[in-house]
Design goal:
This protein is mainly α and 160 residues long. The protein is built from 10 helices and no strands. 26% of the residues are buried.
C-alpha cells in the first residue's frame, strides 16, 4: 500500500478504513512516505480525517491507538499549516492522561509560538484558554526553543 493508493481510496470513499490505520501503525516506510508527501503537497481534508479517525479510535474503550500514532497524524495536520488546526491537535493531546503526558506539546504551535498564542488569545472557548495557558507556560520553560528543528524538512521526528 502506498500513500497514493491511500489518498485515492480516501478521495473516492471519503473514509479511512481499518486496513489503512493498521498500515500506518505497522509500516515505518509508509509513515515517512506520508510526511514526505505532505511536505510537498497539501491535502488538509485527508489530514483532518486521519487525525479524527485516530482520535475516535483512541477514545474507544478497546481502541488501540498509541500516542506515537496520534503524533504522526498531528504532525501531518500541522504540515498543512492552518493555524486553527492547533485546537484539533490540542484535542488529541487532551484525550486522556496518557496522551496529555505523551503527546509532544511542540505539535500544537506548528505555525510558530507567537502566531499560535495570538490565535488562541482571540478564541472564546475553554479549550483555547487551556491550550493558551499551557503553551505560555511551556514557552517560558524553553520547550519551544528548538521548534524549527522539530519541524525541519531535513529530519523525521522520532515517532515517524
Amino acid at each position: 500500500m502506498t500513500i497514493y493508493e491511500i489518498l485515492d481510496r480516501f478521495h473516492t470513499e471519503n473514509d479511512i478504513n481499518t486496513e489503512t490505520i493498521a498500515a500506518f501503525q505497522a509500516d515505518t516506510a509508509l509513515r515517512k512516505e506520508l510526511i514526505s508527501y505532505s511536505r510537498q503537497n497539501k491535502d488538509r481534508a485527508f489530514a483532518l480525517a486521519l487525525l479524527d479517525k485516530f482520535i475516535t479510535t483512541r477514545r474507544q474503550p478497546d481502541g488501540i491507538m498509541p500516542a506515537e500514532d496520534l503524533m504522526l497524524a498531528c504532525f501531518n495536520l500541522g504540515l498543512q499549516n492552518h493555524i486553527e488546526d492547533c485546537l484539533k491537535i490540542w484535542d488529541a493531546k487532551t484525550i486522556d492522561f496518557d496522551t496529555y503526558c505523551g503527546l509532544d506539546i511542540q505539535l500544537v504551535p506548528f505555525a510558530g509560538v507567537t502566531d499560535t498564542i495570538s490565535f488562541l488569545q482571540k478564541q472564546n472557548s475553554d479549550e483555547a484558554l487551556k491550550a493558551l495557558t499551557y503553551i505560555c507556560e511551556c514557552d517560558a520553560c524553553g520547550d519551544f526553543d528548538e521548534l524549527d528543528e522539530y519541524f525541519s524538512a531535513k529530519t523525521f521526528p522520532w515517532f515517524i
